Amino acid sequence: MSVSIHPLYEGTFSVGTDKIFHPIAKTDRPHRGALKVSIHPFLIKSEDRNILFDAGIGDLFGGETSIQTMYKNLEKQNLSNLDITDIFVSHLHFDHFAGVANRDNGFWELTFPNATLRVSEGDWKELTENASELDEDRQEFLFFLEARADIEFLEEDTYTIPGVRSITVGGHSKYHQIHFFEQGEHKYLMAGDIIEGRSSINQNYAAKYDFDPPATKEIRDKLQKTAFEEGYTILAYHETQHPVFRLSDYDEKSGYKIQNIDLQE
After folding, report:
1. Domain 4-260: which topology?
2. Which bin fits 126, alpha (ψ -120 to 50), beta or left (φ > 0)?
3. What phi, psi does 60 have (nearest 5°)?
């Protein structure tokens, strides 16, 4: 069975209180008072499907981000945006799913018009019910998706297509989901912002920016154990240098040992 995984690197950014994503080099420090964030949607190519786990940043975050980055990444894999069949979103924070629509031609269009967009029903309901609190661009984005996108709501623990399992865990956001891909020897786990990078592994504190910090830590601990014991490769959306890695060993004092997997981006 032919399966391959490809991180689609969309850039590294300095993100301050203005929430604008300012591009920086991978080796740069973020601007003063800002966070350093990298963006990696993941493409899984199987025999009959081209699947995205999270959909990228799109162009909602200021003039320095562009949907053209996604198009160029897909070209490197001999694909176009028309070839994407399925999109699974971990949670509805815009840096994880704003890429599903764009205004590259001056008006809203679906970036992946042949894909089914799969999201948590609770997440979608909460976001759309509170749309009035968003800025005008984000409101237009959501209204466009409601009208035009092929949206399928994911249940709390479900298989929707062969090989993909989704579970709702909460933690980082109220309805945060984990997506698993399982076909033969290929086993991948994408945990959105619960395991956002290598620094999440062996993390012993609860982050204040999570919806439920103690729950997030507990979920992360369980996922690390699952990944190690069951042999899942972790896909880390915000990791800068090595977004694909395994947990190769465990020590009670030092925790899990990380084995980087370098793949073509």
Report:
1. Metallo-beta-lactamase; Chain A (3.60.15)
2. alpha
3. -85, -5
State pLDDT tens for residues 163-208: 999 999 999 999 999 999 999 899 999 999 999 999 999 998 888 7
Cβ-proximal residues to 166 (8 Å cutoff; 6+ apart), any chain: 88, 118, 154, 157, 158, 159, 160, 177, 178, 179, 180
Report the distance separating Cα 124 and Cα 208, nearest Å.
Answer: 23
- Tokens 């690390």: give the residue: 224
Answer yes or no: pTM beyond 0.90.
Answer: yes
Of 28, 33, 100, nearest in space to 60 by CA: 100
Place of tokens 């809203």: 108
pLDDT in tens, 71-128: 999 999 999 999 999 999 999 999 999 999 999 999 999 999 999 999 999 999 999 9
Contact by Cβ (8 Å): 39, 9: yes
Dist. CA 160–CA 142, nearest whole Å: 23
Compute the half-sphere exposure of residue 101: CA atoms within 13 Å on the CB side of its CA: 22
- For the record, the structure tokens of 71 come out as 């198009």
Q: Which of 228, 221, 220 is nearest to 245 (CA)?
A: 228
Sequence spans of domains, the chain: 4-260
**Distance from C-alpha of 174 to C-alpha of 17, rounded to nearest angstrom:** 22
- pLDDT tens-digit map of 3-55: 999 999 999 999 888 878 889 999 999 999 898 999 999 999 998 999 999 99
What is residue 174's DSSP assignment?
A: T
Extract the tokens encoding 141: 């984005």
